[in-house]
Design the sequence.
């Protein structure tokens, strides 16, 4: 096989690129690409001019590589843009042509693809740890953006591996390792079995030449035996299917070298211990035929228990479909049979490329509704079933599944996965908090960048640190994109800058409170502060300020909590005050006074400053009366006596209750207050004169005095102004002594 490989290279060497291109054109014509031939030829001519004079390691013109890669793309079933891009795939990287040159001649789509291939070419894969491989594969997918970039890159790698014989031993090994760990798994993910097998076998040839030779020599030695075995089994199956009238094509093959190699190592077997070297494939027209054939095979040969797998009803993540069974032939040799339809076969061989072709011949670029679903499997296949939301994948035929991630390298070659838009700050903190906290600069691909540089896929990022670094700045919180970096920065501020944080947090909170019409002093009260600190889990008000200062708590959130607490505390006070009316009045007055609430008309209304106050006409309270406030609709708070009938017989309910407020008299009263009295007396002449005389003697300010006769009974209404309840009581006592007066009552009670 090795010799065959070398023959192939020799054959290529002998070929003129023009001759190779002529063969390619034939293939294109046969494949229905005749309409695109002109464009493809233009690409060939451009590549020819651009690569003029360049030679490959084997001495052939560089252009032969471009044509060979294009031909592999045709074999994959890719579209004309892919073939054009494949011919041009190295012109940006290896010649003087630029992106703009390509875009001008062949359009932005082709230029983007060629540019994408070049970017993948530039990625350095050295020193990648095993556990980084998955990230690296994702990075390549993310960088590719267009799936065709990956497909062309696989074609490129395939041709380079086929022609690896002329490279140095070192290069053979490193390229083979890359191929085995990156490109073969990618091909597998994309469902391209044929490319995967070839990449694996070519790599193995350089990675373990001994092991490779052992297997190929064994196979060669056994070949006559294996071939006669395979043709006899093939013949038996064919005869039986003919008999049953099933239209089928039957193929047999020796399993590929690397799969035998892996089996030998995994099961620690010698070559003689590996039985199923042969595999048979039966390809039929319909799914029912698949199961019919399965039944016939099991009838002809003894099935090995536990080896039957139905990937038709349950496809593999990469959309592979077939039924597999292992049976034991007449010679006692086990072999595997795969049964599938032609559609399934095409998907198995070419994977996403097959679907790509289907896509291109099925109406071009226009994504109709439902097409996303058709390609949902692509996402599954790429992500190994990890992601489920297929909605936006394949939008405009782009791979944007990694749009929210960016993959970069550390200088050691580790692949670091960060959120899209991440900056060197995110990178530094991802490496270690210490790296972030001591960061003094960053380099990307060897060039110094600013901290807000947006990292690109494939960037090599280097963080410069210093022991004497002053630590992160607060701006970093805005620059960092990842939550983990921000958390670490906040932690640093929390620990390192307490004093500064307290001052800063205090200022921020004061600012925020001001927007809410409050001051820091308004919330210093233990009653307000203690529950808030407890609820937010801070030991002291300084802790609270510090938290606001380093960003652990927003000033807005703290201010809102405090504002609510102020309002809540006012409400609670009202309820308790109403319960303990008599003894609470004075204490409330003091409290109210301490809180600098301004008295209006000598009345303090809890929780409200400068509100509109009016005295009810029903009970006309005076200073000294226990009072209560009622929030009127649109006319401020009306003040009632607590023995007012309107208060005592008030309707109850949450809404009504909420309208009654705790109010109290201010300690210093300067105004006089209007109040009303009702006297009941025996009607006699001179009664009103006597009452007026008493009031006059007491120097009372009488507003109105009227008397009504209700059948021998006189009702006298007096409206007067007093400064206090004490004064009123004196007046009432004197009036009660007027002859004929039976009752002196305040109105409203
Ligand atoms: Mn190339």
Sequence:
């Amino acid at each position: 096989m090795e010799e065959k490989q070398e023959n192939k290279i020799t054959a290529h060497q002998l070929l003129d690129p023009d001759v190779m291109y002529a063969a390619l054109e034939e293939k294109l014509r046969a494949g229905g690409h005749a309409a695109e031939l002109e464009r493809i030829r233009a690409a060939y001519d451009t590549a020819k001019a651009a690569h003029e004079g360049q030679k490959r390691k084997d001495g052939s013109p560089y252009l032969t590589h471009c044509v060979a890669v294009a031909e592999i793309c045709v074999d994959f079933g890719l579209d004309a843009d892919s073939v054009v891009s494949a011919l041009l795939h190295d012109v940006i990287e290896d010649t003087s042509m630029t992106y703009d040159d390509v875009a001008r001649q062949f359009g932005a789509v082709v230029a983007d693809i060629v540019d994408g291939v070049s970017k993948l070419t530039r990625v350095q894969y050295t020193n990648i740890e095993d556990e980084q491989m998955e990230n690296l594969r994702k990075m390549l997918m993310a960088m590719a953006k267009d799936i065709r970039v990956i497909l062309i890159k696989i074609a490129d790698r395939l041709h380079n591996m086929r022609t690896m014989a002329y490279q140095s031993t070192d290069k053979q090994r490193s390229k083979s390792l890359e191929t085995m760990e990156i490109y073969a798994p990618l091909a597998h993910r994309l469902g391209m079995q044929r490319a995967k097998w070839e990449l694996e076998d070519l790599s193995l040839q350089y990675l373990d030449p001994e092991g490779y030779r052992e297997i190929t020599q064994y196979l060669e030695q056994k070949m006559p035996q294996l071939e006669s075995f395979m043709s006899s089994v093939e013949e038996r199956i064919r005869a039986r299917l003919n008999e049953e009238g099933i239209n089928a094509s039957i193929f047999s093959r020796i399993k590929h070298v690397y799969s035998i190699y892996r089996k030998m190592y995994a099961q620690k077997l010698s070559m003689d211990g590996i039985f199923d070297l042969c595999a048979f494939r039966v390809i039929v027209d319909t799914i029912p035929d698949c199961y019919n054939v399965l039944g016939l095979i099991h009838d002809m040969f003894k099935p090995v228990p536990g080896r039957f797998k139905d990937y038709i009803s349950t496809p593999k993540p990469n959309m592979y479909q077939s039924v597999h069974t292992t049976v034991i032939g007449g010679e006692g040799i086990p072999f595997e049979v795969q049964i599938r339809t032609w559609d399934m076969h095409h998907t198995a061989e070419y994977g996403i490329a097959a679907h790509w072709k289907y896509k291109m011949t099925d109406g071009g670029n226009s994504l109709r509704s439902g097409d996303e679903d058709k390609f949902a499997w692509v996402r599954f296949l790429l992500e190994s079933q990890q992601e489920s939301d297929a909605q936006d994948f394949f939008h405009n035929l782009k791979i944007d599944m990694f749009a929210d991630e960016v993959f970069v390298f550390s200088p050691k070659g580790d692949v670091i996965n960060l959120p899209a838009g991440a900056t060197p700050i995110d990178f530094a903190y991802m490496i270690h908090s210490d790296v972030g906290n001591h960061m003094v600069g960053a380099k990307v691909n060897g060039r110094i960048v600013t901290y807000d540089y947006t990292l690109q896929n494939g960037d090599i990022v280097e963080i410069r640190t210093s022991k004497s670094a002053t630590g992160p700045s607060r701006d970093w919180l805005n620059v960092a994109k990842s939550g983990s970096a921000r958390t670490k920065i906040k932690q640093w501020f929390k620990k390192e800058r307490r004093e500064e944080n307290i001052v800063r947090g205090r200022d921020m909170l004061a600012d925020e409170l001001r927007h809410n019409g409050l001051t820091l002093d308004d919330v210093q009260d233990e009653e307000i502060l203690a529950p808030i600190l407890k609820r937010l889990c801070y030991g002291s008000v300084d802790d609270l300020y510090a938290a606001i200062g380093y960003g652990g708590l927003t000033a807005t959130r703290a201010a809102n909590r405090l504002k609510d607490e102020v309002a809540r505390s006012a409400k609670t006070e009202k309820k308790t005050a109403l319960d303990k009316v008599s003894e609470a009045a004075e204490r409330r007055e003091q409290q109210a006074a301490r809180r600098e609430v301004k008295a209006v008309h000598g009345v303090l209304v809890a929780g409200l400053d400068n509100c509109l106050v009016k005295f009810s006409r029903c009970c006309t309270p005076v200073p000294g009366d226990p009072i209560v406030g009622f929030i009127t609709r649109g006319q401020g708070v009306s003040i009632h006596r607590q023995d007012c009938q309107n208060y005592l017989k008030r309707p109850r309910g949450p809404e009504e209750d909420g309208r009654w407020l705790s109010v109290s008299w201010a300690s210093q009263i300067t105004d006089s207050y209007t109040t009303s009295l009702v006297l009941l007396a025996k009607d006699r002449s001179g009664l009103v004169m006597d009452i007026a005389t008493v009031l006059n003697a007491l120097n009372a300010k009488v507003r109105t005095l009227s008397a009504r006769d209700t059948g021998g009974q006189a009702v006298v209404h007096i409206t007067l102004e007093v400064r206090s309840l004490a004064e009123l009581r004196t007046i009432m006592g004197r009036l009660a002594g007027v002859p004929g007066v039976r009752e002196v009552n305040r109105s409203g009670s």
Notes: The first helix runs from residue 2 to 14. The pocket of manganese (II) ion is lined by residues 65, 89-90, 156 (CB under 6 Å). The chain has six domains: 2-166, 210-356, 375-471, 497-568, 577-665, 673-746.
